[in-house]
Amino acid sequence: QPSRNQFNVRAQKSLWQSSTLLLYSAMSPVVAQVALLFCATTWPSSLAALTSIGSGCPAGRGFAPNSTKCVQCGAGTWSGKGSAECTRCTPGTWRTVVGATSESSCTKCAMGTWSSQEGSPTPDSCQKCLAGT
Fold it and tell me: Is the overall model pTM greater than 0.85, yes or no?
């Protein structure tokens, strides 16, 4: 039976490897594949970590920071199927509902208003345009 110290070393390797694979997958799918080849032979659990990274998340969800767990996109963001992260609504748009699945779900500011805020969760970011503009 492994000692407590051996268990801690394994847990640290697993955490390091998952973080490294997340970094590699953000850099490039090719780099992630190379990491898989190396890590899968070094640590078998790398295969499971990279598989979940490679498949992305369902629409309306993205990976939590420093994790391979998919979480629901917050207000002001959206994601399509297979995305690794939630994308902020563009300036001039907003979204109050969580779990949006497309950029078109972000609502444009009303006529005569504008916003420079990315990822606005409310229409309150839309400000009236100056007279004559």
Answer: no
